[in-house]
Amino acid sequence: MQRLEGKTAVVTGGGTQGIGRATAARLASEGAHVFITGRRKTELDEAVEYIGPAAVTAVPGDITDPADLDRLYDVVRERGQGLDVLFANAGVGSFATLEDSTMEHFDRIFAVNVKGTLATVQKALPLLNGGASVVLNGSNAAEQGTPAFGAYAASKAAIRSFARTWANELIGRGIRVNSISPGPVDTSGLTELFGENKASIVDALPMARLGRPEEVAAAVAFLASADSSYINGTDLYLDGGQSRA
User: One of 50, 73, 152, 237 is an active-site residue; which one?
Assistant: First the structure.
């Protein structure tokens, strides 16, 4: 019996070749029908082909646009089975030191990572079934103090705070809320951020390698399933021990 047989899931940022797509594929392999959303239709189409159209539905949209989120959840609602798993994964990051930071830089990161996540979960509330699982994608950057990564780190600290609060607010409905804090994971996003310096990150990692998107996906699938039924309000580090070394 697949752990998510007959369940309905939503993965934001599900088209990118990284954590989103890997998690959508894993949830589908566990038996869920997965709705994915993202800003780039080409990537969404590629994800549908990769996962299989019988198991996934793509709805293009931007989580910073309330109308796009409404359209996503309207499609989920039409399926008529509510929502059992929500992985609020979509996010952005870029570097700027305190001296070089601009309000535009700050606003962009917080609009997606904080306001977008809040709207994603808030608008899902009417659809969430009893026993549903919500997983928020944070980052171990929230406590690393990486130079020039302050706005991103602060946005991910907010994600961790959301998970704690929402876990308490939604427990009466039997809905669990947890967050994950990945470290450096080998994704296209990491390549965009670090370019040729990506390989140097490995030197600072206790396991001497980058994480794989599939490893993060496995953790999300666990938190989405009944196997984690007594886990609520926690934050799961997926960084090979970087934050605890």
Answer: 152
